Amino acid sequence: MKERLEALQAEALQELQGVAGPQELGELRVKYLGKKGALTEILRGMGALSAEERPVIGEVANRVRGAIEAVIEDKAEGYRRAETELRLRSETIDVTLPGSALPTGAVHPLNKVAQEIEDIFIGLGYTIAEGPEVETDYYNFEALNLPKNHPARDMQDSFYITDEILMRTQTSPVQIRAMKAMNGKSPLKVICPGKVYRRDDDDATHSFQFNQVEGLVVGKGIRMSDLKGTLLQFVQEMFGKQARIRLRPSFFPFTEPSAEVDVTCSQCGGSGCRMCKQTGWLEILGCGMVHPKVLEAGGYDPEEVTGFAFGMGIERIALLKYGIDDIRHFYANDLRFLSQFERM
Fold first, then answer.
1. What residues does each domain of the chain span?
2. How far apart are CA 283 and CA 246, in angstroms?
3. Which own/partner contact pairs does 11-20 have at CB distance under 8 Å and 24+ positions apart?
4. Which of 73, 106, 121, 137 could form a disulfide linkage to 342, CB 3.0–4.6 angstroms apart?
5. How many Å apart are CA 181 and CA 300, to the nearest integer?
6. For residue range 15-74, what is the model confidence (pLDDT) as tens digits?
7. pLDDT tens-digit map of 76-116
8. Yes or no: domain 109-341 corresponds to CATH 2.30.22.10
């Protein structure tokens, strides 16, 4: 058996000298050292040896296995080094070549318009107030002069979580929270930006989730003329000095008197076009003098102070500012649409 082992070693080493590549090397490893290899076949006959012969043959077998494994590992290491050198040569980077320009993003148009609105009102002395998007029925409706039986409380208009908890339908609850935080002190000038939720079908002008900015001023001697002057200043900052506004009587439970505000059409300048349906005007927001009951809910005495409030949809402002015809473009994440705002 000793002669067979030594012959096997010589045969294996000779065959390994002429190996052509890593695949053939692996095949030879299996041929000589595998579970069904030549060395294993020889060692199966050790059971027939005497107790004195087994240690001797075992030592020879280990020496033969070690010699074959050493050559195989040396060959394998050589192939690994050659492969690494080939990859380094093929993947060499010329650091003197000009780099590839990476595409850069842009501020989303809704975020851009929201920032512009905030900047305008901060410049007018307003502060920014925020509140929870999951709101109580009291802050979302009751404190805003919307009793339990008011039509705007219809379950079809709001996302209710429980009978007393819902997703806010407007950012007006933040106004109540801001008034309460003042503990009856004035003046108060805040804007309240944020997301709101209403049960609505998505189409070109509506969405179940959209963004609002509402404003509130409370103090002594606040008049409707102050409201009009503020909104005119905002419109001219947002759409240009040539922009004009008009107020039309309307109704909101939380303001009295109330008005809808129109701005001269940004496309035709007021002369009439398809966008404004030949009227020269586009509706932009709602506003009014804060209702006495709302002032009371906020901790103010309506005999001592007055206030005005207004609210606008950020999507609506963006549609008018950029001449976009479908609100769904803002949420489609289409780079062809969004890339247009890189230079604006």
1. 2-90, 109-341
2. 9
3. 12/38, 12/68, 12/71, 13/67, 13/68, 13/71, 16/68, 16/71, 16/72, 16/75, 19/75
4. 106
5. 11
6. 778 888 888 877 877 876 777 777 767 666 766 767 777 777 777 777 877 888 888 888
7. 888 888 888 888 888 888 888 888 888 777 889 999 999 99
8. no
